[in-house]
């Protein structure tokens, strides 16, 4: 099902599709309208809507503006908004979801899908960890770290949007008196542990050993011909108690136990061996981690893995994000150059999701940039979004870099990115992520 940082297309239209000017997220009014719409539809069918909500507040955010200025504060809010939206995009694919900015440093995340209390608790803990990571490259500040508090709720029948907002806000206010308690439930209960971080980390090690980490494939399409030209490999873990855990949180868990390299190799080998069975000329894109790119043994190790799986390196694209590059730009550039020597292509992923460092495009051997879905969402309705798209495509063309549009969800968006010069697109308009057998069927057709 198509999902965005705003409500789904049909729900956004019904609610007026009003965005926060700074972050591009839904507003509080839009969020209330969408929650009411979910509940109304369920009521018309004689059932209770499976709605789950969490209110996220950045601790003492006003002091950021006072200490560093409004520009830095705005930059931090944009970065947090992107982290929440990317988190939701990674974790929810069975139902609708929305992310809204309620004002100041407060955000709402709501999901319209079945979810256990244990899983909602775990998702809140994982999101809090993600938000707490340092935010780099802010306006003349360097890096900044923010600490969130979260209030969680699973609304009961009859609890409408106004009551949901009121109870979450009250719970968050009460949480201020609980030192060391960053997550509280609106039912006034103490935080339900579900499974501790140590338990989940141990579960991951066992899952890797038992080959329980799945890899699914997000098809990519040529904008010129409409044909499937390859896919991006995405890791998934179906935890027996917490449900689906997406790639971002999967690797975050692995990082805490110093098993990123182990997990990364496991996923890459699975992807290369799967892709070796694909029709000829279908390409494979894999995401690489900071630990991968910082290692001096990364290039020979990856090439050896590709050879072991009998796959053509010329059909491989490695995707990197800006945060991967921050640590050691020179080592990153050397490793990427080593990959290109054997025909592996390099894509800069999530372009436009934060404060883009255009210096990367000058220094690094990059073949393509993947526009973040937030760069695509408004191009059919907002002239400024369309102007930004045109500017990026023009710049990329001058540097002989291809542009891939990610998160394309409507035919109108597809037509626009094609007419503006993008080469490839992926998103729910084309196809949702597929298991390997289903992707082979699609690519063979």
TrEMBL record:
<dbReference type="InterPro" id="IPR001633">
    <property type="entry name" value="EAL_dom"/>
</dbReference>
<dbReference type="Pfam" id="PF00563">
    <property type="entry name" value="EAL"/>
</dbReference>
<dbReference type="InterPro" id="IPR050706">
    <property type="entry name" value="Cyclic-di-GMP_PDE-like"/>
</dbReference>
<feature type="domain" description="GGDEF">
    <location>
        <begin position="49"/>
        <end position="188"/>
    </location>
</feature>
<dbReference type="Pfam" id="PF00990">
    <property type="entry name" value="GGDEF"/>
</dbReference>
<protein>
    <submittedName>
        <fullName>EAL domain-containing protein</fullName>
    </submittedName>
</protein>
<dbReference type="InterPro" id="IPR029787">
    <property type="entry name" value="Nucleotide_cyclase"/>
</dbReference>
<dbReference type="InterPro" id="IPR043128">
    <property type="entry name" value="Rev_trsase/Diguanyl_cyclase"/>
</dbReference>
<feature type="domain" description="EAL">
    <location>
        <begin position="197"/>
        <end position="445"/>
    </location>
</feature>
<dbReference type="InterPro" id="IPR035919">
    <property type="entry name" value="EAL_sf"/>
</dbReference>
<dbReference type="InterPro" id="IPR000160">
    <property type="entry name" value="GGDEF_dom"/>
</dbReference>
<dbReference type="GO" id="GO:0071111">
    <property type="term" value="F:cyclic-guanylate-specific phosphodiesterase activity"/>
</dbReference>
């Amino acid at each position: 099902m198509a999902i965005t940082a705003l409500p789904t297309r049909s729900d956004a239209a019904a609610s007026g599709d009003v965005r926060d000017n700074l972050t591009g997220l839904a507003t509080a009014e839009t969020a209330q309208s969408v929650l009411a719409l979910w509940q109304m539809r369920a009521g018309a069918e004689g059932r209770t809507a499976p709605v789950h909500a969490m209110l996220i507040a950045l601790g003492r955010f006003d002091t950021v503006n006072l200490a560093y200025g409004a520009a830095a504060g705005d930059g931090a809010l944009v970065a947090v908004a992107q982290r929440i939206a990317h988190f939701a995009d990674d974790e929810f694919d069975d139902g609708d979801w929305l992310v809204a900015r309620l004002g100041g440093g407060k955000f709402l995340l709501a999901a319209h899908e079945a979810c256990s209390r244990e899983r909602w608790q775990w998702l809140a803990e994982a999101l809090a960890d993600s938000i707490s990571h340092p935010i780099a490259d802010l306006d003349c500040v360097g890096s900044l770290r923010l600490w969130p508090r979260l209030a969680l709720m699973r609304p009961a029948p009859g609890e409408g949007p106004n009551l949901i907002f009121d109870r979450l806000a009250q719970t968050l206010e009460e949480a201020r008196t609980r030192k060391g308690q960053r997550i509280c439930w609106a039912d006034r209960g103490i935080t339900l542990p579900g499974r501790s971080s140590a338990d989940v980390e141990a579960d991951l090690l066992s899952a890797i050993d038992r080959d329980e980490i799945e890899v699914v494939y997000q098809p990519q399409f040529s904008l010129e011909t409409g044909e499937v030209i390859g896919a991006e490999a995405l890791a998934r873990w179906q935890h027996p108690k917490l449900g689906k855990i997406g790639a971002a949180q999967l690797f975050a868990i692995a990082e805490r136990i110093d098993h990123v390299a182990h997990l990364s190799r496991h996923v890459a080998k699975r992807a290369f061996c799967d892709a070796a069975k694909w029709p000829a000329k279908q390409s494979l894109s894999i995401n690489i981690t900071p630990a991968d790119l910082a290692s001096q043994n990364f290039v020979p190790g990856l090439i050896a893995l590709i050879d072991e799986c009998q796959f053509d390196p010329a059909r491989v694209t490695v995707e990197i994000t800006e945060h991967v590059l921050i640590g050691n730009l020179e080592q990153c550039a050397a490793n990427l150059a080593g990959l290109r020597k054997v025909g592996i292509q390099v894509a800069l992923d999530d372009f436009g999701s934060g404060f883009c460092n255009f210096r990367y495009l000058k220094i690094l051997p990059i073949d393509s940039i993947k526009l973040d879905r937030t760069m695509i969402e408004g191009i059919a309705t907002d002239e400024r979004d369309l102007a930004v798209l045109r500017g990026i495509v023009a710049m990329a063309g001058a540097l002989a870099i291809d542009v891939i549009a990610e998160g394309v969800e409507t035919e109108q968006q597809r037509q626009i990115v094609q007419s503006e010069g993008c080469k490839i697109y992926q998103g729910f308009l084309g196809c949702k992520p597929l298991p390997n057998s289903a992707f082979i069927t699609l690519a063979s057709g």
